[in-house]
């Protein structure tokens, strides 16, 4: 059995072994090599008496070494410069060839998986190319950000599927932002605003002193107000007179998604003690109507924004078929994102 010492510096190794029998470097390791048993053990050496009696300056230098350890974000960034970018791979050591072979094998597996899912759900294989292209677009556009939601990095929680019967299958598309089946409170309110300021209220506006409540909302200078509960007719008219677009009876899930994606505060009550909440924003707010089957129409509100959320419009079939397609697309997206 042989005991070997390794450190970052050869000079440091020689001097340490001669003077103290132990290594001073914090990055030294003890290699226990047993040739007969064919075993190798790697461990840090036990602290010597000398290291226990080291000066405060040495402790500070050791602490400095610890603080230089790369964060997980830095390590992920280094990885992205390799296998995630084929152009950076080298051909002389076989990296690029191995990458291409792996990608080709995965693409075959990807198609086989989706075919199996479509067949099991009694769906046509004509959806194959549409779903593959759609999921790849989602992966390239939508980027879950742990700075906004550190405990939830499942890509499926950032994507919402909206089923609109009728239309063509090629009308299926990704909208980068939040979409909901709502309309503005009054036809005289704006239905298209660039870079709006958005106020989110998790309360109703139906009690007395409505003029004072409306005045506080107006003082915040929002362009759009979304309310979880009902809003009285008087409050609606007061907000419309100040050019504010109002949407009420909004689902809690939609408010939560908008709060995360627009970085707006969710205000619980509008009273005299309210501070100045943070208003959210997006690239564009707009309203659009879609023709559905049986001659009907569906109105959707869209908040076009960044990579923090997206909505998939599923079209080209009846609603029961689109419901099965949603389950297939959601599972396939999860598998594709984590390959």
TrEMBL record:
<dbReference type="GO" id="GO:0031410">
    <property type="term" value="C:cytoplasmic vesicle"/>
</dbReference>
<protein>
    <submittedName>
        <fullName>Cpn60 TCP1 domain containing protein</fullName>
    </submittedName>
</protein>
<dbReference type="GO" id="GO:1903426">
    <property type="term" value="P:regulation of reactive oxygen species biosynthetic process"/>
</dbReference>
<dbReference type="Pfam" id="PF00118">
    <property type="entry name" value="Cpn60_TCP1"/>
</dbReference>
<dbReference type="InterPro" id="IPR043548">
    <property type="entry name" value="PIKfyve"/>
</dbReference>
<dbReference type="InterPro" id="IPR027409">
    <property type="entry name" value="GroEL-like_apical_dom_sf"/>
</dbReference>
<dbReference type="GO" id="GO:0090385">
    <property type="term" value="P:phagosome-lysosome fusion"/>
</dbReference>
<dbReference type="GO" id="GO:0012506">
    <property type="term" value="C:vesicle membrane"/>
</dbReference>
<dbReference type="GO" id="GO:0000285">
    <property type="term" value="F:1-phosphatidylinositol-3-phosphate 5-kinase activity"/>
</dbReference>
<dbReference type="GO" id="GO:0005524">
    <property type="term" value="F:ATP binding"/>
</dbReference>
<dbReference type="GO" id="GO:0032438">
    <property type="term" value="P:melanosome organization"/>
</dbReference>
<dbReference type="InterPro" id="IPR002423">
    <property type="entry name" value="Cpn60/GroEL/TCP-1"/>
</dbReference>
<dbReference type="GO" id="GO:0052810">
    <property type="term" value="F:1-phosphatidylinositol-5-kinase activity"/>
</dbReference>
């Amino acid at each position: 059995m042989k005991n070997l010492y390794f450190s970052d510096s050869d000079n440091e190794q020689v001097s340490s072994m001669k003077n103290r029998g132990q290594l001073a470097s914090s990055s030294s390791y003890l290699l226990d090599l047993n040739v007969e048993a064919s075993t190798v053990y790697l461990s840090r050496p036990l602290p010597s008496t000398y290291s226990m009696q080291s000066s405060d300056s040495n402790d500070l230098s050791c602490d400095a070494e610890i603080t230089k350890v790369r964060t997980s974000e830095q390590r992920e960034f280094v990885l992205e410069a390799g296998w995630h970018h084929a152009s950076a791979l080298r051909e002389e050591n076989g990296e690029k060839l191995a990458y291409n072979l792996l990608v080709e094998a995965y693409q075959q597996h990807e198609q086989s998986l989706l075919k199996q899912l479509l067949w099991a759900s009694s769906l046509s294989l004509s959806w194959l190319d549409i779903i593959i292209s759609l999921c790849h677009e989602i992966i390239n556009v939508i980027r879950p950000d742990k700075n906004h939601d550190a405990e939830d990095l499942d890509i499926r929680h950032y994507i919402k599927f909206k089923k609109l019967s009728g239309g063509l299958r090629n009308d299926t598309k990704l909208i980068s932002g939040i979409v909901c089946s709502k309309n503005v409170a009054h036809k005289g309110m704006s239905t298209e605003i660039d870079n709006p300021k958005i106020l989110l209220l998790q309360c109703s506006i139906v009690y007395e002193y409505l003029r004072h409540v409306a005045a506080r909302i107006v003082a915040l200078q929002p362009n759009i107000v979304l309310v979880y509960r009902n809003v009285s007719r008087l409050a609606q008219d007061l907000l419309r007179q100040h050019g504010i677009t109002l949407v009420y009876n909004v689902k809690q899930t939609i408010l939560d998604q908008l709060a995360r994606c627009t970085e707006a505060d969710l205000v619980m009550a509008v009273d005299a003690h309210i501070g100045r909440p943070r208003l959210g924003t997006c690239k564009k707010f707009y309203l659009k109507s879609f023709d559905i089957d049986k001659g009907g129409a569906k109105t959707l509100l869209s908040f076009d924004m960044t990579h923090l959320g997206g909505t998939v419009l599923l079209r080209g079939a009846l609603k029961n078929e689109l419901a099965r397609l949603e389950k297939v697309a959601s599972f396939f997206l999860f598998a594709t994102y984590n390959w």
